Amino acid sequence: MLIILLTSVFTVGTVASSPSTQVCAPTIIDKTLVPLKNFDANITIVDVTDLYSWDVVLSFNPAVLEATAVSMPDPNFLGLNTTWAIGIVQPVIDNFMGTVKVGDTFYPPPPPPEGVSGNGTLAIITFEVKAENAISPLALEHTALEKIVNGTNVPIPHETINGLFDNRMTLLPPVALFYVEPLVTYVSEKITFNASESYDPDGDIVRYRWDFGDGTVVNLTDPVATHVYNSTGTYTVGLNVTDNNDLTDTATYTVVVGKQNSTITISASPTTIKVGENTTISGSITPTRQGVTVTIRYRKTGGEWSTLTTVTTDTSGQYSYVWTPETAGAYEVKASWNGDENTLPDESDPQTIVAQEAPSPTPPPGPGIPPNIIAVAVVAIAIVAAGIAVYFLKTRKANASRTQPRILCSRFFLSSEGNKTCEGPAENEKSLNVM
Fold this sequence. Notes:
By secondary structure, this protein is mainly beta. 11% of the residues lie in helices and 46% in strands. It is built from three helices and 34 strands.
């Protein structure tokens, strides 16, 4: 048990916080505590239950204070006589580093059946003042509280309250300083207000109060704040800083909030059509602007711009228009709007639309010829063709018979059967005629 308790006494670690149990260092503000005078700083405990052991490390500014002694009330908080003579939890003073380490535990074992509960003083640290008109922290760098549960050391959750020594003849107020980023601001843009350069020459700033000039006021412990303005205008921003002595200082800055930029877009679908066909022109405004007027202009490429139409944006900040070009050509269309009290106007880039000539219409077919008339015509044509063919054949035969030579006989003989037979050289008709 002794080893366990000794290990806990001077173990440095992080202690869980609780609103009930507290270990506190004192705040001593006394300008009569001049150099060579002494004072006691009591380390106290509040609302603890079943405490068996404790240890603390208190830090201070060795240029301002010197620790000269450490003692305990008699009897001490654990209800025992002093245990320093045993040497187990002997206090350690380090005036070079500016620390005092002190603790106590039940000894010898076994420990009593119950620990100590309530409020009281754990230790008394005596200091000698070394500097005048000065300030020094009395900060609890480490605290540990333990109880015993079934023979095991268990940490007691608690919080620490730091203290301060101050013998200044005159307290100095803090100095409020801040800057704004970006310097040029617009509606709906987040602005950063940074008071990190504010300082307190003899203490610490504990609160930053911002008044942004538009009805918004915030109190922060952090020096950096952000804000968004919803309307254009000139606003006076005020910063009030408060230090640990409740002294204050104020700084102001004028913020000019201008109109925010906007973007309007335009597109067409389809972008190539025939004359007489439709194309849908559409787009949107960012940031969203509902119910504002958008002007759509058009021209043939290289020509003068003319207003095609005006439309109104819907709840999403979008617009559309169906257009039917009447003549062929390459057109450009663009959209614009005039802005509003918080937003700058904008004009889109041109969108090209090509309208091609429509094809020439095909003439309708004439009335049809009845099938019976067509048949008669075909038959007639066939008869005529046949007649022409017969005529040419007859003519050809006739010509052929006239040109063929006839064979003549110079002598005939009569046979016994009564047949006539030609005998002798044959001559054609031409030869006979010549003879």
